[in-house]
Every structure is written in structure tokens, then in C-alpha cells.
Design brief:
GO terms for molecular function: adenyl nucleotide binding; anion binding; oxidoreductase activity, acting on the CH-OH group of donors, NAD or NADP as acceptor; zinc ion binding. It holds the Pfam family ADH_N. Belongs to the zinc-containing alcohol dehydrogenase family. Helices cover 25% and strands 25% of the residues. The chain has two domains: 177 residues, Medium-chain alcohol dehydrogenases, catalytic domain (Quinone Oxidoreductase, Chain A, domain 1), CATH 3.90.180; 133 residues, NAD(P)-binding Rossmann-like Domain (Rossmann fold), CATH 3.40.50. Strands 3, 5, 6, 9, 10, 17 and 18 form a seven-stranded mixed β-sheet that branches. Strands 13-12-11-14-15-16 form a six-stranded parallel β-sheet, sandwiched between helices. A three-stranded antiparallel β-sheet has the order 2-1-4, with no helix packed on it. The protein is built from ten helices and 18 strands. By secondary structure, it is α/β, with parallel strands linked by helices. Helix 3 packs across helix 4 and helix 3 packs across helix 8. It binds zinc ion (2 copies). One zinc ion binds next to helix 2.
């Protein structure tokens, strides 16, 4: 079986491995499509971060390097373990990749996506989606309806990140929204706010192709922060700021812009991953009663199918447009050159490349 194994920074090898043994609560999936994510690129350029550090094993899964990558994937179930009854051979499925301990403080408080020992299929487990087959717990599998192509199931994970962020923000129908950054997650947020009834959706993004995609999926105004002052334009056209802003980059300029383009009493929800400092003065929150929160992934553990099913429903109803996000389809053997290296090119026009083994 062919799999893309991560050994360390800039060392991703497509190699042949033995078929994984199937546990009684697990299912074997023939992978149809797996999306390359910013997280994968981050591991490739600067990891191990979410993958196990050199010489260590993950406390929950015992996984150690090399690990197969690919946490956004879909496929067809080809074998089920002896204790599995909720899914059957032949079913089309997508996978919620989060594995949680079920025992820590946050798991017992129902906040499984904050689990202290969280692991992910395709980052810190023995299986991943950049592979001909994956073996995953049946509890992590979410069925796909017959009406949508199986490969679209690979978009359910990033779309669920967008949905979760919108739910975390408390955005309501009729609100005005600004989204900073139109990568896969920014685009997913645009789709989710449009489906949720946002009236005005401003998107600030330097890459032209990404602005075009944002317009296809619901942005009403797109801005190039290299050419326009996004904050000025948004504040002028909304009488002082949007109701809700989303930061989907993780750098100081977009963090600052997200705050400055939000109205008094408004909400800023951050999804951009970063360890960098971003400037903030208390009165940008205090005297204007703005609220900032973070959004991490999606519901998982016993609620693993909750937001994933919502995303699947939106795909089925046509409110989510997966095709607008898919900018490339490649073979597993070409994953490094035509996938990772291409996405890391600053001039790349890609948003989501699907690996189809
Ligand atoms: Zn991802
Ligand atoms: Zn836990």
C-alpha cells in the first residue's frame, strides 16, 4: 500500500508499507481524495509541531515518526471491524480526524476540541489520508449522501472549521461580516457566513485568484490590502465597522485590521494559527466593549459528527460550493512536487489541492 510518510521538515516520502491491522472498532477506507492543508505545509516547512517530535511517541496514540499525513479525506469503506455496526462496507464516508482522550478536564466538560491529549489522524496517528487506504475508528466516520461526489467529502473538514468559527462568533442572520484572509479556512468562513445569512461580507486578501473565489462563494466586497486600506473602506461603508470580523491569517496586520474594522460592541473571532505577538491595547476592547475569541477546529469526541453533518448538508443543498475551492487534483506519487512545493510557492494560485490516490 502506498502512503506519504512524514519524517521531518522537507522530508515527505511516498513509500510502500504493509496494510494496517484492523481493530474491532475500526473501519478500513479506500481513500478517494485527501486535501493538502496549511497545517500540512507548516509541518513540512517547520515541523514537527502537531506531528510527534523526533524520538517521542504521542501520549494518546503512541505514534512516532514517520507518520502518514492527510487529515482531510473521504473514501469508501471496504472493511469493518467485528464490533462496528454504524457503518457498512461500501458506504461513502468522510472522517473527523480528531482523537481525544475522553478523560481530561476538557473532555469531561464536553469541550473535546480542547482535549489536553488530542491527536489527529493524518498528523499524530498510525493512519492518514495521503494513502491508498486508511484505518480509523468507526466513531470518527461521517456518512456522505449518495447525491454528492465522494471526493467532495475531503472538503468537509475545512468547511467544518469555518462553520465552527461562525458558531463560535455568534454571528446572526442580517449581520455584516469582514473576513481577513481567503485561504481554505477564510473561504470556508465566507461560505458559512453566507449560508448563515450575513448581509454584507467583506473579504480582504492580497491574492487576486483568492478574491475571485471569495466572490464566487458569497463575498459582496473584496479588497486587496496591498492596494486599498481595507479598514477605511469597511468602516466607511458600514457606518463604523462590521458586526463580526474573522481573522484567518495569524499575523499582526490582519489581527489589527480585524479589530479596527469591527464596530463598537462587535465581535472578533480568530482562527489564524500563530505564535507571534500581535499588538493590542486594552482600550480597543474596554471602552468600546469589543469581544475577541478564538476558534479551534470543530466539535469532536462524542460530537464528532455534529458539525461535519452540517457541512455535509450544506454541500448537499448546494449552499457550500466545494468546486470553487478545489484548484488542483494530483496523484499521490506527485504530492511533494505538484502539491506541497506548489502550494508553498508565493505566486501559487492554488487554494485546495486534492490528492487522489
Ligand atoms: Zn486541515
Ligand atoms: Zn481529553
Amino acid at each position: 500500500m502506498r502512503v506519504a510518510n512524514y519524517y521531518g521538515p522537507e522530508d515527505l516520502r511516498v513509500e510502500s508499507v504493509d496494510e494496517a491491522v484492523l481493530g474491532s472498532n475500526e473501519v478500513r477506507i479506500d481513500v478517494v481524495a485527501a486535501g493538502i492543508c496549511g497545517t500540512d505545509l507548516h509541518e513540512y516547512t517547520g515541523g514537527p509541531d502537531l506531528t510527534p517530535a523526533e524520538g517521542t511517541t504521542h501520549p494518546l496514540t503512541n505514534a512516532s515518526l514517520p507518520v502518514p499525513l492527510g487529515h482531510e479525506f473521504s473514501g469508501t469503506v471496504v472493511e469493518v471491524g467485528s464490533d462496528v455496526s454504524e457503518v457498512a462496507e461500501g458506504d461513502a464516508v468522510t472522517v473527523n480526524p480528531a482523537l481525544v482522550c475522553g478523560e481530561c478536564r476538557y473532555c469531561s466538560e464536553g469541550r473535546h476540541n480542547l482535549c489536553e491529549s488530542v491527536a489527529n489522524i493524518g498528523l499524530s496517528a498510525r493512519s492518514g489520508g495521503f494513502s491508498e487506504q486508511a484505518v480509523v475508528p468507526a466513531a470518527n466516520v461521517v456518512p456522505l449522501p449518495a447525491g454528492i461526489p465522494v471526493e467532495y467529502g475531503a472538503l468537509v473538514e475545512p468547511l467544518s472549521v469555518g462553520l465552527h468559527a461562525v458558531r463560535r462568533s455568534g454571528m446572526q442572520a442580517g449581520d455584516s461580516v469582514a473576513v481577513f484572509g481567503a485561504g481554505p479556512i477564510g473561504i470556508s468562513i465566507v461560505q458559512a457566513v453566507a449560508a448563515g445569512g450575513a448581509t454584507e461580507v467583506f473579504v480582504s486578501e492580497p491574492r487576486r485568484k483568492r478574491r475571485e473565489i471569495a466572490e464566487m462563494v458569497g463575498a459582496t466586497t473584496t479588497l486587496d490590502p496591498m492596494a486599498d486600506d481595507s479598514v477605511d473602506v469597511i468602516n466607511a461603508s458600514t457606518n463604523g465597522g462590521v458586526d463580526v470580523a474573522f481573522e484567518a491569517v495569524g499575523i499582526e496586520p490582519t489581527f489589527r485590521a480585524a479589530i479596527e474594522s469591527t464596530k463598537r460592541g462587535g465581535q472578533i473571532t480568530c482562527v489564524g494559527i500563530s505564535d507571534d505577538d500581535v499588538g493590542l491595547t486594552p482600550n480597543e476592547l474596554v471602552v468600546v466593549e469589543r469581544t475577541i475569541n478564538g476558534s479551534n477546529g470543530y466539535l469532536s469526541g462524542p460530537l464528532a459528527d455534529r458539525e461535519f453533518r452540517m457541512a455535509v448538508q450544506y454541500l448537499e443543498s448546494g449552499e457550500f460550493d466545494p468546486e470553487a475551492m478545489i484548484t488542483g487534483r494530483i496523484r499521490l506519487d506527485d504530492i511533494v512536487e505538484d502539491g506541497f512545493e506548489d502550494l508553498l510557492d508565493p505566486d501559487s494560485e492554488h487554494v485546495k489541492i486534492l490528492v487522489e490516490p
